[in-house]
């Protein structure tokens, strides 16, 4: 994908307006005119990989529109290519759709309809609309012609119905090796649309299928299976991405020629399986794909990252998969807000990664309780407090929302502060701690640094200072003006934690170009994952997995879905507080 189109940053108030998108407009008209009593959509992923952020647009469209207009949406696994498909993906897809907050009316598989597709193919043969072709794949390609040249008819195009039926039945019986023959639609070898030049409907493939085992040595092609699945399920609006626009005439051809709505005999196999159907004539409508820079979003490329060990599996928090960004701390609401703001259109565009990150910040700012964590710890001893000094301070959990309540934060003589909040030689404009200087400890009072303790190598190992007791909360001097405020945790009470500092997986906006013989593999960000050991306050350590927090002054973090334990906390950085990439990374 080349981003030769502008990046798109819609204003926040565009959401309501985008809800008037052209697909919703069509749905409204179809309901108002009585063309459909209710709408029915489907989300049809191929289980050949994990879902990614791009799929969120399709899910939000298919499930969201059905929900909005009181319709129904099926989850249909498009499992017509057994060689690439895996039950692991099927499970992850269902998990992801549920996580986004959607419920399917029915879970279907294209393979549920293999019997129907087969009967429909025999019908096409009898109608003279399909034939068995003995050309090899290479020959088919040579006969197909090009954009400027018409194709040539296959020498097998005029086979009689009986011969075609006999050969097709023998294909089905497994008599021929892979690739020996195909069943092709008989449409128009001179069509300007190459998809209509007698496209294949079935190919021979002796491969075991995850649902149907070894029942079928032949498998239907995508266009044929997809259009008929829609028609069988009574889909009213078949929503898909723009690359299928040129396939729409074939989609319509398959539905019209098979016409399952008027041929109940074709659907008989479903009754036996207890699969309800209400055949219809679906309408395909295309919208543009969601593309984001600084990432790759094709399952094939994501699979390569996984297979080559360049990431830690499909669910690596740096991956744009839904499993990955979920583990990273993205919320379903942030994703849905993101796609709903962008809306639906027929124009391809490339969205800046920062738009996604800003949406997450916005969502987490509202929903994430605040906590304190120190990621690069430096000891700070308050020498005017007793060794056993211990108190419980009360902190509000959210600065803007009282409903988050309060929590107790332990305070004691020895603290951890962040190394970067102290400078021996401060740069210009420095507001934090310096030798002899003062700073406010968030919620605890003003401290002065009296002494910098170093080791033999000259490295700072500890600061010693005093707490101004008159500046404690509730004391007359509590409001004394001071320039900087820093966060801290009590060394005695804090819990040591592993903190994974994730960042963008690629260093360039368009890792997908093949310029200079480089590929996306060459643009992996070596700093996209750093792990540090820090300290978190007790009320962060006790979090449940997947609980998100703002670590004050540090960023948004989430308790790792799989590895976090209260006695051994693991937090993942979801996003920094501010965009650090804006000025070019
Ligand atoms: P990929 O190119 O990532 O492998 P795909 O199109 O092969 O994706 P499918 O599993 O076939 O993936 O997709 C299921 C549905 O999701 C399809 O309707 C497809 O149009 C839609 N979809 C896939 N990628 C995107 C995207 N980036 N933006 C919007 N919709 C998408
Ligand atoms: Mg696909």
Describe this structure in words.
ATP binds at residues 46-48, 241, 289-290, 297-299. The chain is of the alpha/beta class and 585 residues long. Strands 12-25-26-27-23-24-13 form a seven-stranded mixed sheet. A seven-stranded mixed sheet has the order 21-18-19-20-14-17-22, with no helix packed on it. A four-stranded antiparallel sheet has the order 4-5-6-7. It is 26% helix and 22% strand. The longest helix is centred in the first third of the chain and has 16 residues, at 53-68. The chain is elongated, with a radius of gyration of 31 Å. The protein binds adenosine-5'-triphosphate and magnesium ion. Adenosine-5'-triphosphate binds next to helix 3 and strand 8. Residues 44-46, 54-55, 57-58, 240-241, 289-290, 297-299 line the site of adenosine-5'-triphosphate.
């Amino acid at each position: 994908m080349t981003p030769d189109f502008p990046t798109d940053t819609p204003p926040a108030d565009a959401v309501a307006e985008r809800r008037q998108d052209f697909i919703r407009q069509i749905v409204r008209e179809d309901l108002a005119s009585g063309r459909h009593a209710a709408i029915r959509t489907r989300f049809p992923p191929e289980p050949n990989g994990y879902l990614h952020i791009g799929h969120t647009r399709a899910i939000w469209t298919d499930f969201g529109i059905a929900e909005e207009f009181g319709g129904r949406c099926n989850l249909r696994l498009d499992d017509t290519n057994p060689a690439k498909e895996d039950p692991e993906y099927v499970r992850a897809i269902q998990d992801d759709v549920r996580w986004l907050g959607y419920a399917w009316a029915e879970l279907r598989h294209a393979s549920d309809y293999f019997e129907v597709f087969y009967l429909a193919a025999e019908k096409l043969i009898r109608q003279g609309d399909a034939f068995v072709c003995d050309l090899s794949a290479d020959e088919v390609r040579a006969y197909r012609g090009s954009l400027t040249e018409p194709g040539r008819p296959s020498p097998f195009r005029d086979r009689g119905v009986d011969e075609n039926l006999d050969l097709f039945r023998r294909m089905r019986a497994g008599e021929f090796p892979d690739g020996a023959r195909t069943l092709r639609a008989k449409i128009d070898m001179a069509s300007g649309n190459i998809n209509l030049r007698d496209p294949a409907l079935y190919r021979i493939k002796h491969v075991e299928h995850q649902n149907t085992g070894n029942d079928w040595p032949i498998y239907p092609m995508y266009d044929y299976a997809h259009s008929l699945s829609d028609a069988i399920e009574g889909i009213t609006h078949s929503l898909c991405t723009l690359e299928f626009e040129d396939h729409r005439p074939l989609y319509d051809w398959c539905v019209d020629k098979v016409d399952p709505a008027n041929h109940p005999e074709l659907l008989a196999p479903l009754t036996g399986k207890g699969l309800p159907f209400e055949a219809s004539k679906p309408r395909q409508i295309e919208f543009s794909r969601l593309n984001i820079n600084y990432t790759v979003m094709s399952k094939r490329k994501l699979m390569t990252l996984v297979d080559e060990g360049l990431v830690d599996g499909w669910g690596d928090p740096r991956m744009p998969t839904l499993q990955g960004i979920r583990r990273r701390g993205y919320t379903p609401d942030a994703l849905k807000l993101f796609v709903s703001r962008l809306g639906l259109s027929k124009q391809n565009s490339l969205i800046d990664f920062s738009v996604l990150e800003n949406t997450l910040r916005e969502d987490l700012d509202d929903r994430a309780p605040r906590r304190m964590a120190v990621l690069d710890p430096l000891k700070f001893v308050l020498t005017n407090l007793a060794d056993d000094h211990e108190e419980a301070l009360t902190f509000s959990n959210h600065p803007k929302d009282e409903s988050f309540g309060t929590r107790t934060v332990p305070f004691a003589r020895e603290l951890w502060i962040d190394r970067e909040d102290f400078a021996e030689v401060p740069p210009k404009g420095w507001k934090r701690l310096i030798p002899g200087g003062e700073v406010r400890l968030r919620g605890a009072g003003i401290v002065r640094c009296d002494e910098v303790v170093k080791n033999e190598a000259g490295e700072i190992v500890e600061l010693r200072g005093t707490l101004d007791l008159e500046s404690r909360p509730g004391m007359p001097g509590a409001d004394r003006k001071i320039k900087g405020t820093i966060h801290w945790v009590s060394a005695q009470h804090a819990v040591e934690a592993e903190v994974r500092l994730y960042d963008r997986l690629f260093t360039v906006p368009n890792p997908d170009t093949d310029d200079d013989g480089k590929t996306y593999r060459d643009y992996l960000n070596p700093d996209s994952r750093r792990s540090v050991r820090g300290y978190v306050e007790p009320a962060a350590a006790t979090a449940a997995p997947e609980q998100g927090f703002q670590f004050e002054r540090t960023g948004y973090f989430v308790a790792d879905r799989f590895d976090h334990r209260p006695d051994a906390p693991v937090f993942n950085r979801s996003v920094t507080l501010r965009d650090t990439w804006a000025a070019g990374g």
